[in-house]
Write a structure and sequence with these properties.
317 residues; Beta-Lactamase; Alpha-Beta Plaits; six-stranded antiparallel β-sheet; 10 strands; elongated; GGDEF_dom; Nucleotide_cyclase; diguanylate cyclase; EC 2.7.7.65
Length: 317
Amino acid sequence: MTELVFSQWELRGFIEDIITSFDYHSLTKSLLHVKESLKLEYVQVFLYDTPIQYEEWLPPQTANNIIELRGDTISEFDSREQQVPFEHIEHRDKAQSKRLTILYMPIFFNKEQTGILLLEYKRNIPIDAYESIRMGIATAIKGASLIKEVQKISITDDLTKLYNRRGFLTLSYSRLARLKRTNTVAGLMFIDLDGLKVINDTLGHKAGDTAIAATAQILKNSVREEDIIGRIGGDEFTIFASQIDATTIGIIVERIRKNFASYNTAHPENGFTLSCSIGYSLLENYTERAFNAVLTKADSLLYEEKRRKRKAGVSRK
């Protein structure tokens, strides 16, 4: 048998890319990475507009969203109805004059069938690798659907455009299932803006709003796009970051502090200096209870830092 075209670590990376795809375009990019890395000629995803509830496997339905990666061609079709081919077993690649064997895999999450995945089958790729890809796509689609659902309710903070407490917890809890599938370590950070009350009392609430909005932007600039940031209180912010370790989370915390310092240097006209206190901890258990416990621990560590600052005369009340 030919050598495997990927390592288990690479497969884990592929699946992490897939399950953190929050829209069809980013899912296409992730699938293109898989296709190129595994040297597949053919990948096609048919997604139903409405998931189908089922007890047993159902034959293909009409698809409304289609992603097709065939050779060097990338196609995305949104809101175009097309019947999924029921007997699509082989596909002839005319350019290379060879016959491809296609795996036909239903995409489902719990008891909902959301579409069909067609992948070129290669003997040197274990069948469980294909199954991992299918499960990753199913999780990504469920996550994208959840995001669309929660966007219909109030999940963002008007001032900062970050997630509010409800939005932060809803999306973080949904991320836990993905982390469990890939056994990925994650981290929680609790950030408190120092001296907001002093800014409000001395310079007015407009200056306070400027400080809060600036803090939100600093945090956005300090983490990756896929990390979840929330404003869960007046001067309290949280960050949920996946695929990190103790060293990485420490680097992120230092980056946040440096970005606060850079902001102060760039904006002397504000009349105030921004600083923050940060508590953080790693999450290695994927339940909501464990998540809340780690969040509480990060909050406690934050207030320990604030107490140290007060004793040193650094932090304003």
